[in-house]
Amino acid sequence: MQNFEFYNPTRIIFGKDTIAQLADHVPAKARVLVLYGGSSAEKNGTLAEVRAALGTRTVREFGGIEANPTYETLMRAVATIRADGLDFLLAVGGGSVIDGTKFVAAAVNYNGDAWDILRTHGSDVSEALPFGSVLTLPATGSEMNSFSVISRTETKEKLAFGSPHVFPRFSVLNPTKTYTLPVRQVANGVADAFTHIMEQYLTYPAGGMAQDRFAEGLLLSLVEIGPQVIANPHDYDLRANLMWIATLALNGLIGAGVPQDWATHMIGHELTARHDIDHARTLAIILPSMLRVRKDAKRGKLLQYAERVWNLRDGTEDERIESAIERTRAFFESLDIPTRLSAYGLGTETIDGVIGQLEQHGMTALGEHQDVTLDVSRRVLEASL
């Protein structure tokens, strides 16, 4: 097992009727900006509950944060905070709203061009406004980590940053708030969480017994409940398990002390930035091809994954690996998530643009061995057509 430090200060407040507890966790004298996405938070009553819980505190609201939060929109939120002297942020929504709030929190007092936060991947963030979140869409794990992904419309870029200064102080997780989500968003959440786990688990054996078993348990749970959670939108236990699994998938625990990949995400980000495909759906396109192109480097873990997650014990090693990869693709397809670029009307003509963006962003040596060169990324994209 590798050396590691694990730190996660986020308080989780989980269960039914928990939004009222905001009153206990937002400072009584805070001047609050509530950030949210579209109209669903208003329609399903979540914003009304938030307003009631915040009571007599000074509160401003900022809506319109996109599914892939944009720098342009978020800088307007920064301007609002500066103009009104606000000092606490509350994200109400899914991972995109929480990601956006992290950027806003870091940008308010940042010296210089705020886009540099993304260019430097957060390395020069020295402070951030305190914030909490009310999660309404389980998917990204942003409610319990210190990472954020932001897009810039003008340049068609999508970059990530991380900083210990942007952990949420707390996150409220009420599974009933997922009942009215569109099927597409729920399916995306399952696929997103699944791929987050795979990026930390399916690398090479590193002696992390607890991490491996924990990751495999989460994967098995998603395989079991994925189709059910879509078919039964008001099943509390299913939605509660999905919400908690998605949080555990990226709160740092299963990745502590083991190698991590993230090449699938880096290529997926460029597909979203250039072609506006849902983030989770880009992952479903790329992951099976990534596993196939890199099966020799990942052989040990692919065989472990085949046996422990898909119960594949018969046949040659190559047959078991191939079957595990195809079952992964079939799992995404069972959620009605296409796994080929052609399903989005994209062909070979898109590959050069994605490779160019990867090169521009310095994504030329990805993966757990730093051996995913631009040539390897090209082969992965070609295998994804």
UniProtKB/TrEMBL annotation:
SUPFAM superfamilies linked: Dehydroquinate synthase-like (SSF56796)
Entry keyword annotation includes tRNA-binding: no
Ranges of residues in domain Alcohol dehydrogenase iron-type/glycerol dehydrogenase GldA: 9-175
One cellular component (GO) term of this entry: cytosol
Cofactor: Fe cation
Catalytic activities: a primary alcohol + NAD(+) = an aldehyde + NADH + H(+)
Fe-containing alcohol dehydrogenase-like C-terminal domain sequence ranges: 188-353
Entry's Gene Ontology molecular function annotations: alcohol dehydrogenase (NADP+) activity; butanol dehydrogenase (NAD+) activity; metal ion binding; methylglyoxal reductase (NADPH) (acetol producing) activity
Keywords: Oxidoreductase
Entry similarity comment: Belongs to the iron-containing alcohol dehydrogenase family.
Protein name as annotated: Iron-containing alcohol dehydrogenase
